[in-house]
Specification:
Elements (H helix, E strand, L loop, with lengths): L1 H31 L1 H16 L5
Length: 54
C-alpha cells in the first residue's frame, strides 16, 4: 500500500514538472515572437479595461 502511494505521488510530481516545462517553453516562444507579443498585450489591455468586444 505504501509503494502504491509513492508511485502515485511520483507520477503527480513528474506530471507537474512536465506541465511546468511545457508552459515555460510556450511562454518563451510567445514572448519571443513580436506579433504574438503585441496580440498578448492587446488582450491584456482588453482584460484590464473590461472590454467585452472582440
Amino acid at each position: 500500500m505504501f509503494i502504491a502511494h509513492k508511485l502515485i505521488a511520483t507520477k503527480i510530481l513528474l506530471t507537474g514538472a512536465v506541465f511546468l516545462t511545457a508552459g515555460t517553453v510556450l511562454a518563451a516562444a510567445a514572448l519571443s515572437d513580436p506579433k504574438c507579443r503585441d496580440k498578448l498585450k492587446e488582450c491584456a489591455d482588453k482584460l484590464r479595461n473590461g472590454s467585452k468586444n472582440t
